[in-house]
Amino acid sequence: MVHRIAVIPGDNIGPEVVAEGLKVLRRLQALGFGPFAYDEYPWGAGYYLKTGAPMPADGLDTIRDCDAILFGAHGDPQRVPDRVSSQGLMHKLRKGFQQYVNLRPVRLLPGVVSPLRGKDEIDFVVVRENTEGEYSGMGGRLHAGTPYELATQTTVITRIGAERVMRFAFDLARQRGGKKRAAAATKSNALSHVFGLWDEVLAEVANDYPDVECHKFHIDAFTVHLINRPEWFDVIVASNLFGDILSDEGAALAGSLGMAPSANLDPTRRHPSLFEPIHGSAPDIAGQGIANPVATILAVRMLLDWLGEAEAARRVQAAVEAVLAEGQVRTRDLGGRSTTAQLGDAICARLEAV
Ligand code: IPM
Ligand code: MG
After folding, report:
1. Under a CB-based contact definition with an 8 Å cutoff, are residues 262 and 275 in contact?
2. Contact predicate 184/238, CB 8 Å
3. For ligand 1, is residue 263 a contact (CB within 6 Å)?
4. Which residues of 120-153 are buried (b: 16+ CB within 10 A; e: fewer)?
C-alpha cells in the first residue's frame, strides 16, 4: 500500500534538509520499500508574506487524510515575527491533530563527540507534552500601548493531558526494556497549582507501573542533573515548555542540534503524526548548503517506524551511524567541511548494504 506523505519544507534551511530526507525515501523506494507518494505544501513564513497567513484556513483539512507529515523548519524572523509563523502553523498542526506526544530521542552516536568531557553513553528519550501546558495559547494583552499595558499567558495542565502523556512515557520505558526509569520535570515548588496537579497525576500513573522507577526533579535541578549524569536518564517526561528546553539541552549534549529528530504523535492514530528535526530554520546559515541533514533523516527514520516500515527504518539508522562513525563526510557543526547534499548522498549510498 502506498504511503501518502504531506511534505511541508518551510523556510530557510527547512527545504535544504527536507530535500535530503526525500532523497533517502526515494532511495529506499528504489530498493523496494514503500512506495511513497508526496504532496508538497509551501507553508511557513514565506507563505505568510504572500497570503497573510502561514497556512490556508483549511490547511488542516487538506492534509488530514495523509499517512504522515514531514516537516522541515519554519520561520523567517527578519521579515515575520516568530510568534506569527509558529501560531499560524506549528501550533495549529500540533493541537489541531492532537499530536499530544512530542517524542525526542537523544543519543550520542558512534563517532560523534559530546561537549561533555569523558561522556560516551548518552541515550534517553524526551517525551514532551505537546498540546497544552505553557503553550496553551490562552491569555492576552490589555491596554495595549499604554503605561497600564499588561500581558497574561496561562499555563494549562489538564488531568487527561498529563495522564495520557505520562502513560505514554511509562509504556515507553517498559518497551525500551533498559533502565526502566522515568524522570519527570516539575516546578511545583513555585508553580503550585499547575505542577501540583502534574505531580499528583504522576504519582497515580507511577502506581500502575511498579516495574518502572519513577523520579521527579524541579526543572532547574533537572537541567543540572542532565549535564552531570546524562547516562543515568532513560525516559524523561515533561510539560510542553520544559520538554522544549530539555530536548534542546539533550541534543546539544549529544553533539549537535543538527542531529536530533522528533515525532509529534497522535498515539490514537485518529490524526496524522508529524516528523521534523528539533532545530529551527537557522536563517544565519540558510542558502549556504551547510546545514546538517541528519536530524531530518532521523525524523524520516521515525516516520518509517510509525508507518510500520521497520526494516527501512533500521537501514536509515544504520546508514547514518555508519557514515558518522567513519567520519569522512561531516557537516560544519560536526567539525567537517561537507555540504548538506554530500552528507545526504553518503547516507543514501549506504542504505543498500547495512
Ligand atoms: C520546537 C521549537 C518550537 C517549540 C518553536 C519553533 C515554536 O522550538 O519544536 O522545539 O517551541 O515547540
Ligand atoms: Mg524547541
Report:
1. yes
2. yes
3. no
4. eebbbbbbbbbbbbbbbeeeeeeeeeeeeeeeee
Whole domain around residue 95: which residue ranges?
Answer: 1-100+259-354
- Please choose from 102, 244, 275, 276 the residue to mutate so as to test ligand 1's pocket, defined by most ligand atoms within 8 A of CB: 244
Pairing of strands 123-129, 133-142: unpaired
Cβ-based neighbour number of residue 245 at 10 Å = 16
Q: What is the pLDDT of residues 163-201, one digit of tens each?
A: 999 999 999 999 999 999 999 999 999 999 999 999 999
For residue range 224-274, list pLDDT tens digits in order: 999 999 999 999 999 999 999 999 999 999 999 999 999 999 999 999 999
**Catalytic residue list:** 135, 187, 220, 244, 248
Q: Which of 43, 89, 90 to mutate to test the pocket of ligand 1 (most atoms within 8 A of CB)?
A: 90
| CA–CA dist 89, 110 (Å, integer) | 35
For residue 240, which ligand has an atom nearest its CA?
1
Strand partners, 124: 106
Pair (287, 246) in one structural domain: no
Which of these, 230, 271, 264, 297, lies nearest to 127 by C-alpha position? 264
* Cα→Cα distances 39→9, 65, 142, 225, 257, Å: 11, 11, 42, 43, 27
Mean pLDDT by 10 residues, the chain (354 residues): 97 98 98 98 97 97 98 96 93 97 97 92 98 97 97 98 98 97 98 98 98 98 98 98 98 95 98 97 97 98 98 98 96 96 98 94
Question: Do 242 and 271 fall within a single domain?
Answer: no
- Write out the residues surrounding ion ligand 2, Cβ under 5 A: 244
Q: Select from 254, 284, 311 the last residue of a domain.
A: 254
Residues 224 and 175 in one domain: yes
* Residue nearest atom 7 of ligand 1, based on CA coordinates: 86
Query: Domain of 235: which CATH number?
Result: 3.40.718.10
Beta-ladder partners of 211: none
